[in-house]
Amino acid sequence: MTNPADLTLAQLRDALKAKDVSSLEATDAYLTRIEKAKALNAYVTVTADKARDMAKASDAKLAKGEGGPIEGVPLGIKDLFCTEDVLTTAGSHILDGFKPRYESTVTSQLWRDGGVMLGKLNMDEFAMGSSNETSFYGNVVNPWRREDGGNTDLTPGGSSGGSSASVAARLCAAATATDTGGSIRQPASLTNTVGVKPTYGRVSRWGVVAFASSLDQAGPIAQDVRDAAIMLKSMAGHDPKDSTSVDRPVPDYEAVLGQSLKGLKIGVPKEYRVDGMPDEIEKLWAQGIEWMKDAGCEIVDISLPMTKYALPVYYIVAPAEASSNLARYDGVKYGLRAKEYTDITSMYEETRAEGFGDEVKRRILIGTYVLSAGYYDAYYLRAQKVRKRIFDEFTDAFSKVDLILTPSAPSAAFGLGEKTNDPVQMYLNDVFTVTANLAGLPGASVPAGYDRQGLPLGLQLLAKPFDEETMFKGLFALEQAAGANKRPNEWWA
Amino acid sequence: MSIDKETVRKVAKLARIAEPEQRLEPLAKELSGILGWIEQLNEVDIEGVEAMASAVDVKLPMREDVLQDGPTGGGQPENVVANAPKTEDHFFVVPKVVE
């Protein structure tokens, strides 16, 4: 019999319903894999006992022919989602020992639908990073390696590096992730997985540790498009506890897979190119255009001239919001408190100096600076206005096209340590993804091919607000045409 | 615009992060690098453009002014202070703030 941990989420769901396999067997298969994959450092916390308890409860329901849409399916949870009585770190030292007394809306919906929690996944500290190198809990290593025999450890992308690595290495059936500037889509692109960032407001942010509240949105990283559709259906929905959550019915995303794309207009923005981008990515993009034509789509050349300003806008707006959100870590309410201090101000200052890593401090300082007296108009207000222009540009483009096709990231996975010396070089990883966050649009990365070193490359689709269904149709067509479903060699096991 | 050491000191104070003296100069360089790159926004014509604070076009929803059930409800001080480094009788304990 096949190892249940080799099945896709959809296959496992069906096997569980057919009682070909039990949730406990599947859960144990994943726990065994996780145990052997310590070299990847994908999990911060493994909740083995809880997982087995949840699996047994699922098996009892399945035995009676009951259970939710993903009953008994083992999942990994990014450590940004609060999980009741389970350590939640956000990849930071400052949340040492934090065990929330409540469950995030997203995870509670996954458990409602039958999901089993395997544990909490590593990530960049407070989701600030594109390589998973800012985590207090150490780098996550990409399961993929270059085919040059050099065994260089590569980044799984970030900030959801634990999510992308664990799905790529089959250390969970699927994972939750979050995306503030590209943190679902870039890691998915670097690991041959599917990453979906829904429309802002589609998924509740309640119980998700906040980074930049006007940009943060949760979504799945999954093995294939169908699995991502199943995950998103469980994660999405209106939540009165998040005032930006939008009250619209959640469609059955899985039902649209395989529907015809005939007559859809696909926009191709000429600005989605950067200096030094490998020609393989350019070629893959051209190939993607051909695949969409073959599927009956009409290709429309579009121009989004504001694209180059998206990252600079992001690096004002996101740090500004972060500096405000992260003011709550003061050594009083939860987590770390410094041992040495003289008065309350020095308690705050020493706690935050000790508890935050360099990248987080850098962004808090930038955010504090751009919001400070005398600089607010020049930086923050200007950035908000340029953001509006980016938004307007997309609104205009989407009056002419149904989807926009771009590369997901400007490079394949790079070596750990290769880009850590220059923050701006690291930031450029998100050049193709960050626009969707600023405009609130849904976007997703799908595996589309491999570079000459055998490393995965993704293509991105962007859609109109709340038109995830058309996006899923397009993703499925690209996935079928590309057939890029290789798995990495299990060098770590 | 480039940031000098004194500005870093001031901003770090505002952000309540203790930065050791020897970090101020390197930080000034790093932050100046980032802000220098951000400067390109000055090329964009923003005349008459409204500032965008949110990507969703919804009014802030109102709810009935009643006590909520569950984790956002009241009457659970033990949960509120459960994760605090130092507490006493459901209070957060901090160093003396009033002389």
TrEMBL record, chain A:
Its UniProt entry gives the catalysed reaction(s) as: L-glutamyl-tRNA(Gln) + L-glutamine + ATP + H2O = L-glutaminyl-tRNA(Gln) + L-glutamate + ADP + phosphate + H(+)
What is one Gene Ontology biological process annotated in the Swiss-Prot or TrEMBL record? translation
Cite the entry's keywords alphabetically: ATP-binding, Ligase, Nucleotide-binding, Protein biosynthesis, Transferase
Entry GO terms, CC: glutamyl-tRNA(Gln) amidotransferase complex
Q: Which SUPFAM superfamilies match?
A: Amidase signature (AS) enzymes
Any idea of its EC number? Answer: 6.3.5.7
Q: Name one GO molecular function term.
A: transferase activity
According to its UniProt record, which protein family does this protein belong to?
Belongs to the amidase family. GatA subfamily.
Under the subunit heading, UniProt states: Heterotrimer of A, B and C subunits.
Main function: Allows the formation of correctly charged Gln-tRNA(Gln) through the transamidation of misacylated Glu-tRNA(Gln) in organisms which lack glutaminyl-tRNA synthetase. The reaction takes place in the presence of glutamine and ATP through an activated gamma-phospho-Glu-tRNA(Gln).
Quote the protein name from its UniProt record. Glutamyl-tRNA(Gln) amidotransferase subunit A
Species for this entry? Hyphococcus luteus
TrEMBL record, chain B:
Any idea of its EC number? 6.3.5.-
**Class in the EC hierarchy, top level:** ligase
Q: Which GO terms describe its biological process?
A: glutaminyl-tRNAGln biosynthesis via transamidation; regulation of translational fidelity; translation
Q: Per the record, what are the reactions this protein catalyses?
A: L-glutamyl-tRNA(Gln) + L-glutamine + ATP + H2O = L-glutaminyl-tRNA(Gln) + L-glutamate + ADP + phosphate + H(+); L-aspartyl-tRNA(Asn) + L-glutamine + ATP + H2O = L-asparaginyl-tRNA(Asn) + L-glutamate + ADP + phosphate + 2 H(+)
Keywords assigned = ATP-binding, Ligase, Nucleotide-binding, Protein biosynthesis, Transferase
**Gene Ontology molecular functions:** asparaginyl-tRNA synthase (glutamine-hydrolyzing) activity; ATP binding; glutaminyl-tRNA synthase (glutamine-hydrolyzing) activity; transferase activity
Matching Pfam families? GatC (PF02686)
Assembly with partners or alone: Heterotrimer of A, B and C subunits.
What is this protein for, i.e. what is its function?
A: Allows the formation of correctly charged Asn-tRNA(Asn) or Gln-tRNA(Gln) through the transamidation of misacylated Asp-tRNA(Asn) or Glu-tRNA(Gln) in organisms which lack either or both of asparaginyl-tRNA or glutaminyl-tRNA synthetases. The reaction takes place in the presence of glutamine and ATP through an activated phospho-Asp-tRNA(Asn) or phospho-Glu-tRNA(Gln).
| Annotated family | Belongs to the GatC family.
According to UniProt, the name of this protein is Aspartyl/glutamyl-tRNA(Asn/Gln) amidotransferase subunit C
